[in-house]
Amino acid sequence: MKNLRESTLGELELMLTEWKEPKYRAKQIYEWIWQKSAAAIDDMSNIPKELREKLNAAYTIPKVKTHHSQYSSDGTIKNRLQLHDKHFVESVLIPGDKRLTACVSSQVGCSLSCKFCATGYMERKRNLDFDEIVDEVTLLNEQAIKHHGKPLSNIVFMGMGEPLLNYKNVLRAIERITAPDGLAMSPKRITVSTAGVAKMIRQLGDDKVRFKLALSLHAGNDTKRNEIMPINESNNLKTLIDALNYFYKATGNEITFEYILFRDFNDGIKDAEELVKIYRKVPADLVNIIEYNPIEAASYEKPDEDRTVQFMKYLSDHRVNVHLRRSRGKDIDAACGQLANVDAEALKLQSESGHEADAVSEAGVN
Predict the structure, then answer these.
(1) Rounded CA gap, 246 and 201, in Å?
(2) HEC assignment per residue over 88-115
(3) In degrees rounded to 5, what are phi and psi of residue 211?
(4) Which one-letter DSSP state was computed for residue 139?
(5) Burial of 245: CB neighbours in 10 Å, binned 0-12, 13-18, 19+
(6) How many helices, marked H, and strands, marked E, lie in the chain?
(7) Element (H, E) at 155
(8) Which positions are catalytic?
(9) 38 contacts: CB under 8 Å, gap ≥ 6
(10) Taking the CB of residue 345, how many other CB atoms lie within 10 A of it?
(11) What's the CA dihedral at 139, 141, 145, 150 to 10 degrees?
(12) Which H/E stretch holds residue 244?
């Protein structure tokens, strides 16, 4: 059967006309799908039973469901989400002093193999469909209201996968998230983070997107970046700098650099000098320094606090707008770079042994 959410409002109107049903029903159905987040056609209470039966015979709504949630001591909530084909992704609700941020995934796994990232050691199974991404946001928004009494304020595409390698679905999802007849969130509160796909960064410029763009930089020269991020071999720093400037010229949107510090690898003063040079070549508004969160598959370590302070001081002294982003949810492996699906049997064993952090299953949240 067809996915009802793939239909545009115009397509719904055409279908109802062919069925000799009132055209205005299309808008009602569309509202149920995108504003009321209906989980099933039978939930559409103002749609006549006979029409719901016709819809059920031809269409389905493959909703994403929360399979498992973990609760951090700092308020972060990591969610393992089950897709209609039994694949899983992880999304995270991150509370801050003034923000409630949804960290969402765009792919099941990842193909880029970044050496410091848990998702990079997974096989990419498939891209998420646009409506599955919208479901992630909807579920996290419901969770935010339930646990914090207010809706999401921000969305970051920094979960599993490379968003720009799922370009059409990510942009269509953002269109639904920001549309007045969708979730009506401001595009200025949405950030798409890329490991650096130059061709698609340029495409973002051509498409005149209104959301924010972040580049996961993590090294200021090609030799080091090649070592930790294989994508740099085909998208080197010069190519990326050119693409980012093209993006800025087309959109007027400033760029954020994300930079994870690794002990004795990219945390020295020379590294800071190289970062300053790149910062000055691109209309960047911010460098986010990110605490590294160790994973079993990699041997990288977090630098000590003094070295981090020295690195940031050098940037600040050279007029770089720099911010230290403290990790959240480390005790439940929900921090930056730690997202990786856990085998269902492992979850079960952990839960039975009492080691899982406040496991729950909610039907209704990177």
Answers:
(1) 8
(2) EEEEEEEECCCCEEEECCCEECCCCCCC
(3) -80, 170
(4) H
(5) middle
(6) 11, 14
(7) strand 154-157
(8) 90, 336
(9) 32, 44, 61
(10) 8
(11) 180
(12) helix 237-251
302 within 8 A of 338, measured Cβ to Cβ: no
pLDDT the model gives residue 317: 98
What is the Cα–Cα distance from 94 to 100, expressed in whole angstroms?
A: 6
CATH for 2-60 is 1.10.150.530
What is the C-alpha to C-alpha distance for residues 92 and 90, in angstroms, rounded to an integer? 7
End-to-end CA distance of the chain: 30
Q: Give the pLDDT band of residue 97 (cuts 50, 70, 90).
A: confident
- What is the spatial distance between Cα 260 and Cα 217, in angstroms, rounded to a whole number? 8
Q: Write out the residue limits of the CATH 3.20.20.70 domain(s) in the chain.
A: 65-352
Candidates 3, 361, 350, 5; CA nearest to 176 is 5
SS3 17: helix
Domain with CATH 1.10.150.530 in the chain: 2-60
| pLDDT for the residue 362 | 25
- The CATH architecture one would assign to domain 65-352 is Alpha-Beta Barrel (3.20)
Residue 137: strand, helix, or coil: helix
Task: List pLDDT tens digits, range 17-58.
Answer: 999 999 999 999 999 999 999 999 999 999 999 999 999 999
Mean confidence (pLDDT) of the chain: 90
Q: What is the mean pLDDT of residues 318-344?
A: 65
pLDDT in tens, 347-356: 333 333 333 3
Question: By three-state DSSP, how is residue 337 classified?
Answer: coil
